[in-house]
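Morning. Coffee machine broken again, so started the prediction first thing and wrote up yesterday's gels while waiting. Chain of 72 residues, entered below exactly as on the submission form.
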Amino acid sequence: MRTYYFDMKDGVPARDKSGLEFGSDGAAIAHSKSLAEDVRAKRPGGHPDLRIVVIDENGREVHREPVYSKNS
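Came back before lunch.
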């Protein structure tokens, strides 16, 4: 298992300091998609540039998940 961090960025990052453990990059990416859905449900019409950035334990960016699509 590796630790992944899920930073929120819309210009200024909000850092995830605790992280979560997943068995693969794919599982962490799937989690970022779920997080994006949760944010959309709680804050419809939020900042259009908001992204969830997945960072692995080595500091490598694994994925950027947009929270709001251009069509939202």
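The chain has a mean pLDDT of 91. Going to sketch it on the whiteboard this afternoon.
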